[in-house]
Amino acid sequence: MSELLYPVVISPLTADDGGGFAATVPDLPGCLSDGETPEEALINVRDAIAAWIEMARELGHAVPAPSRLPERAIG
Description:
- Helix content is 28%, strand content 21%.
């Protein structure tokens, strides 16, 4: 699996939200995924990042460079 360049924030979801964990990418507005475990959410968000970048390029939007935040924060 390729190195994750964009920082990802993983946080628990409430039971009302279906449980599991959400993975959001602060550098890419609206880019997020989820999973049953933090590890699964992190794996799933990689696809979301690739799709976000692909769509931005198709629409002619700039793709922001990754910030210098830590690779991943859990909590």
